[in-house]
Amino acid sequence: MTAIAGTPVVNSWNEWDHLKEVVVGSADGACFEPTEPGNRPQVRGREGAPFPTGGKSAQAVAQANAELDGLARLLESRGVSVRRPGRHDFGRALRTPHFEVANQYCAVCPRDVMITVGNEIVEATMSRRARYFEYEPYRHLVYEYWEADPRVGWTVAPKPTMSDAMYRQDFWEWPVDERHRRMHSSEFCITQAEVVFDAADMSRFGRDIIVQESMTTNRAGIRWLKRVLEPKGFRVHPVHFPLDYFPSHIDCTFVPLRPGLVLTNPDRPIRQDELSLFTDNGWELIQAPEPVLTNDEMPLYCQSSKWLSMNVLSLSPTTVICEEQEKPLQDLLADQGLEVLTVPFRNVFEYGGSLHCSTWDIRRDGTREDYFPSAVYEPLV
Ligand code: DAV
After folding, report:
1. Is residue 195 situated within a structural domain?
2. How far is CA 238 from its chain centroid?
3. What is the tens place of the pLDDT at every residue in 219-264?
């Protein structure tokens, strides 16, 4: 890894510029996500059935790794340098002054934890106990980039306590009509008392970054991001998708494909007053088609929705990678003039993500652009 003609080794300003270097996750050592205040995993279609604990089976790990390796090979065949997480003992219990948890999770989804913001790496606080140390499998890479190029910045968000008081336990018991009634309040399983965010609630559009308020990112987390990023020339916009009653991570909801084009989730429209940021600046929103897999057909232990179909990875403004069986989405993207590459990825779904979640872009071409020249912006709140 060397700096290419003046481009810093860490350089990524949006979700679509030409990809040069990326981290692809690994299922090595993966465990089932434990039940904890910020997460109530369910066996799909079997309400009340106990969720497995401890390590995933060797077969489940091998199947996911085969698909992650397939993605890595496809990326390399397109000239992208691929890096992988280091080993981490996810089976180890954690005990801090504020909580205990029986095991950790996995390094399949670097996107949830790590984000490149221009020439800077930001490590998220995370929102769940089992993911407290999930930055560790990436630290050898962070140090390598940081040592290699003095232009590389590195910011670690403050770790929340993740004590019981940080969570709103009754959130999980709210009936659907109550969720509907509260849909505009943006209060989920985390309170506002501490700074909390997962990196995957952010989406990068040059100098503008949108951040979803969710079960995994609160308003204090967004305030922290504004105070850190605004002095560096970014504008941070909170966004909301009120019909998503269990929002977590923006990349199955609102997915930019190239300047002026966003793939949207027809079940989760953006809040009306936030739409104008896009429409007033010439952006077109296109709805994703119905996914091929229904929610009932998703893998038994998968906690994500059928909209993992939308979790595509852009190699450039003209090329995108899509899950192999999502033909309706492939056709829509091809109709938009995109070259669509495909890989099988359904065995990765039970680890919480698809192609975008399981990657973290380190270097893309390009620099900071303003894609929202007429945006009305309120700095520092
Ligand atoms: O729509 O189920 C999944 C994203 C997981 N990283 C969803 C969000």
Report:
1. yes
2. 15
3. 999 999 999 999 999 999 999 999 999 999 999 999 999 999 999 9
Q: Ligand 1 centre from 3 Cα, in Å?
A: 34
- Cα distance between the two ends of the chain: 39
Domain that residue 298 falls in: 19-364
Query: What separation in Å is there between the alpha carbon of 91 and the centre of ligand 1?
Result: 23
The residue annotated as part of the active site, out of 31, 189, 302, 357, is 357
- Specify if 370 maps to a domain: no
Where residue 217 sits, what CATH number does that domain have?
A: 3.75.10.10
Active site (annotated) includes residue 357: yes
**Predicted TM-score of the model (pTM):** 0.97
- Please report whether residue 5 resides in a domain: no
For a mutational test of ligand 1's pocket, the pick from 249, 254, 312, i.e. the residue with the most ligand atoms closer than 8 A to its C-beta, is 249
pLDDT tens-digit map of 107-131: 999 999 999 999 999 999 999 999 9
Query: SS3 for 75-100, per residue?
Result: HHHCCCEEECCCCCCCCCCEECCCCE
Cα-to-centroid distance, 252 and ligand 1 (Å): 6
Q: Is the CB of 200 under 6 A from ligand 1?
A: yes
Rounded distance, CA 348 to CA 366, Å? 30
Q: Extract the tokens encoding 353.
A: 């993500």
Q: With DSSP H G I counted as helix, E B as strand and the rest as coil, what are the percentages for the chain, rounded to 5?
A: 25, 25, 50
Sheet of 284-287: strands edge to edge?
254-258, 261-264, 284-287
Is 198 a known active-site residue? yes
Residue 233 lies in a domain: yes
Annotation marks residue 322 as catalytic: no
Strand segments (E) across 147-231: 153-156, 202-205, 208-212
Number of domains in the chain: 1
